[in-house]
Amino acid sequence: MPYRKCTRFDKCSVNNCPLYPNYPNMYVHPDDVEQKCPMSKNYRYNIGKNYPDILKYQGLTPREFSSKAKWESKTEEEKNEIIIRLKSNSKFVAKMPPVLSEPRVMCNDSPE
To answer: pTM for the whole thing?
Structure first.
């Protein structure tokens, strides 16, 4: 079963696991300590994509799965336009550390 491939399987308490075949129709008790899977989308997808016949959403949430399908339905031109638009939006641009004027050199004080 796909959920057994997860590194958290032995200690996980998420009842509505995206790697379980009946997901997202599993019961989540309001008092459950973990109500959502803490594993990253990429981690879950890398497991789930190997079980397309068992996992309806391939390890993703329904929202993640529909967004992925929507992205994959776009042409390369549309994808590139979106990427350019996102890169130009300052809140999506990663903050880069300042460039040093001189590279740092690690010194070894021991004589050769």
So the answer is: 0.69
